[in-house]
User: Which sequence fits this backbone?
């Protein structure tokens, strides 16, 4: 297991270094977000192909994490990178670092490589489990993952359709799933990580993989997810977004408040 993890880290470091060179050319550090998702997916597929566990289990976790990362990575490239200005978060980091920005971004990209290795842990553990049959827990986790994937894809599609309409510029999407949660994409993202953690927990050493959904929840609520997204929304949409905050659940989809 440790040999595979070390090989994954080397591959991830090389991939992120290449992505850093690309970011210098297009001057958009947002590629790291797409690269991270695609890298986690690639590592999961790598483990599924080289692991010596049962084929059914390796295939299941490879498809789950591979399709998640491929869809999310392509969506981020389309929505935030190609022909788009750099995300305000990275613009702020670039201003703060000044002349050191390119060097600091290199190490930032390398930290994302380490994060990708960590978040690929469910695939690593599950791909080494030789048990021939999927357990009831693993089957239930697959069903939960399908629900999460469908939810996140739906939320992203609804938001993209809303943003494509010029009349909606400067306004807040409150349609579909966005009527019931301010961040339904993040919620269903976390549901998928819970599913992957539960799937891996049925394998030896699988309890380690439960750290992934726990860490994802922490990052969403405290670091890179909800706080900067809400701060930017308040700056750009003001009182409309404050009213949205007052009436709408921040994370778990629920009926909006009235009055």
Assistant:
């Amino acid at each position: 297991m440790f040999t595979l993890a070390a090989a994954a880290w080397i591959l991830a470091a090389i991939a992120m270094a290449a992505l850093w060179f690309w970011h210098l050319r297009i001057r958009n550090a947002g590629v790291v977000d797409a690269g991270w998702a695609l890298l986690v997916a690639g590592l999961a597929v790598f483990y599924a192909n080289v692991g010596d566990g049962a084929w059914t289990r390796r295939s299941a976790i490879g498809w789950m994490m591979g399709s998640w990362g491929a869809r999310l990575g392509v969506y981020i490239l389309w929505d935030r990178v190609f022909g788009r200005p750099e995300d305000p978060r990275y613009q702020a980091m670039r201003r703060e670092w000044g002349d050191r920005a390119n060097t600091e971004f290199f190490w930032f990209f390398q930290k994302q490589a380490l994060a990708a290795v960590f978040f690929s842990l469910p695939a690593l553990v599950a791909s080494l489990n030789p048990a021939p049959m999927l357990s009831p827990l693993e089957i239930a986790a697959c069903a939960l993952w399908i629900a999460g994937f469908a939810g996140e894809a739906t939320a992203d599609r609804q938001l993209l359709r809303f943003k494509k309409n010029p009349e909606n510029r400067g306004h807040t999407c409150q349609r579909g799933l966005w009527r019931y949660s301010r961040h339904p994409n993040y919620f269903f993202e976390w549901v998928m990580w819970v599913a992957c953690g539960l799937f891996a927990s049925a394998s030896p050493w699988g309890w380690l993989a439960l750290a992934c959904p726990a860490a994802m929840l922490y990052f969403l609520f405290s670091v890179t997810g909800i706080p900067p997204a809400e701060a930017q929304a308040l700056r750009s949409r003001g009182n409309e977004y404050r009213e949205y905050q007052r009436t709408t659940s921040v994370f778990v989809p629920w009926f909006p408040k009235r009055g």
Residues 1-129 form one domain. The mean pLDDT is 94.
